[in-house]
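Run log // design_07
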């Protein structure tokens, strides 16, 4: 039907003697509709038809428009050339313009009844043959809102070339923005648009599909294509893996919701893009995981860590793994076939084993064998603590931890024997046998010299882990105290009861031990005494009573 000018009243005409019932019905409808249109299109009116105060009138108007449509159909069947049809058609167009105007206004309003009002208007326009006009307005308004919302979420239309030209800092920033935007867009924006379309156009599934797809598809494709483009960058180093795992995890967690929201056939491109991005992200994760393992295998650093501390490779790998295990499900998804018979726990255990094998090799350059065992103990202890205090333990289990704690103890025992063996074996095989004063003095001198040499050598050695450090010190202290006790007895009896000068008392030894394994010059106490006889006796008192080291002069 062509557009014609609206006329507020029918043209004057001679009333026929007999007027059909259909014409009468049309005339009654046009009268009530015309009154409402005149009222609500008045330039002096600051109110709107679909508002709280006039909702009843709006509902009556909609029913009158629907009734006019049906009476026009009846009139056409009895008198297709009736002048009242022309007038009714013009009036119908005016009514649609009013409804279209209200449709736009309701979108911009804050009424809690907005969705119902939109549905009422849409149902009326569709049922009266103005679906196209209604849908056009709906798409225009909602698409603008979707674009504005995505823009506010920092979602940009970026080509692959643009993404690949970005430096990592810029790309990482955009990935962080994407992570936030993806969840909000799917669970709020797209889900909300789907609910709105379902409600407003519930009378027509086809309209729901076409309107929703036209409104959201472009923005959705822009949003979901970004991870794929990001995963195609050329330099995928291991340090970047966590951001890609974040994207994979986010997209995977949203996939069911995306499928539900975009289930229409016309939205297949959106679902396909999500799958493509997940696939590409999985490829990138595998590439970076391989690069991580290769970097461990190819590490050739041979410079010994000062003091036998924890090697940077150990710290790097274990910190990396402690973060990586939080993404174990995503990693398993990235290795669907490979991990079917080889769970993530096996791969993590293999990486740790690979690292420990490299650490074994890095112990070789130490010239002091005792220090090499301290180095091994420190590094394995670091690994065990990291496993125990992170989610890695959930994958490897308590048995793995206990087994490797036993290996730490074995390394510590080896270290103790090699580092302090000469001190601990400075007693005669049968100390209870009677010895001469010269022999007693020789034993004391040997103990003092061996203790001093061991202490001086180890003053710069380090045990970073407090638990391991305390365990080794307690073990040494106990064994050294037993030696000291025997030496005092030998000193007392071997010298005829008077005793020789004792350079280190039990208290001195305890103080010196407490000063060890902090690295550099220890915890801040003094150094070991110089060679020579002290002024103390076999009673075990310090030469000065106050000096930490019992220095002799």
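design_07 sequence
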């Amino acid at each position: 039907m062509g557009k014609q000018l609206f006329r507020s009243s029918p043209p004057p005409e001679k009333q026929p003697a007999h007027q059909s019932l259909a014409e009468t019905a049309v005339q009654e409808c046009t009268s009530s509709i015309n009154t409402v249109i005149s009222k609500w299109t008045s330039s002096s009116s600051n109110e709107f038809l679909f508002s709280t105060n006039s909702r009843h009138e709006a509902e009556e108007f909609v029913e009158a428009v629907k009734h006019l449509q049906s009476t026009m159909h009846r009139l056409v069947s009895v008198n297709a050339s009736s002048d009242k049809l022309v007038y009714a058609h013009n009036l119908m167009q005016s009514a649609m313009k009013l409804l279209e105007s209200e449709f736009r206004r309701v979108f911009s309003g804050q009424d809690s009844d907005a969705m119902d009002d939109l549905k009422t208007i849409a149902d009326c326009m569709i049922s009266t043959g103005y679906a196209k006009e209604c849908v056009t307005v709906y798409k225009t308004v909602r698409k603008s809102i979707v674009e504005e919302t995505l823009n506010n979420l920092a979602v940009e239309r970026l080509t692959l070339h643009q993404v690949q030209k970005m430096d990592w800092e810029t790309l990482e920033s955009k990935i962080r923005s994407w992570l936030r935007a993806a969840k909000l867009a799917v669970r709020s924006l797209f889900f909300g648009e789907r609910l709105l379309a379902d409600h407003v156009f519930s009378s027509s599934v086809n309209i729901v599909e076409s309107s929703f797809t036209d409104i959201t598809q472009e923005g959705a494709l822009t949003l979901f294509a970004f991870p794929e483009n990001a995963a195609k960058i050329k330099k995928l180093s291991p340090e970047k893996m966590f951001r890609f795992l974040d994207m994979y995890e986010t997209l995977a967690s949203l996939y069911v919701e995306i499928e539900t929201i975009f289930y229409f056939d016309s939205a297949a491109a959106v679902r396909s893009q999500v799958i493509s991005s997940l696939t590409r992200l999985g490829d990138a994760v595998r590439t970076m995981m391989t690069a991580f393992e290769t970097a461990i295998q190819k590490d050739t650093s041979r410079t010994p860590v000062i003091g036998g501390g924890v090697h940077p490779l150990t710290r790097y790998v274990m910190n990396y793994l402690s973060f990586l295990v939080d993404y174990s499900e995503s990693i398993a998804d990235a290795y669907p076939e490979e991990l079917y018979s080889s769970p993530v726990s096996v791969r993590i255990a293999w990486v740790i084993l690979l690292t420990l094998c490299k650490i074994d090799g890095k112990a070789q350059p130490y010239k002091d064998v005792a220090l090499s065992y301290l180095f091994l103990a420190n590094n394995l202890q670091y690994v065990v603590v990291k496993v125990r205090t992170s989610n890695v333990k959930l994958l490897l289990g308590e048995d793995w931890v206990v087994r490797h704690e036993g290996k730490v103890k074995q390394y510590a025992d080896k270290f103790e024997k090699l580092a302090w063996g000469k001190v601990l074996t400075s007693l005669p095989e049968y100390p209870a046998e009677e010895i001469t004063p010269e022999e007693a003095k020789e034993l004391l001198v040997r103990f003092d010299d061996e203790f001093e040499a061991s202490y001086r050598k180890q003053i710069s050695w380090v045990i970073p882990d407090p638990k391991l450090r305390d365990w080794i010190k307690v073990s040494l202290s106990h064994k050294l105290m037993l030696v000291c006790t025997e030496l005092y007895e030998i000193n007392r009896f071997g010298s005829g009861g008077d005793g020789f000068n004792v350079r280190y008392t039990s208290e001195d030894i305890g103080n010196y031990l407490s000063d060890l394994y902090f690295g550099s010059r220890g915890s801040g106490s003094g150094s070991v005494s110089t060679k020579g006889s002290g002024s103390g006796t076999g009673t075990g008192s310090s030469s000065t009573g106050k000096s930490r080291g019992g220095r002799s002069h």
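The two ends are 121 Å apart (CA to CA).
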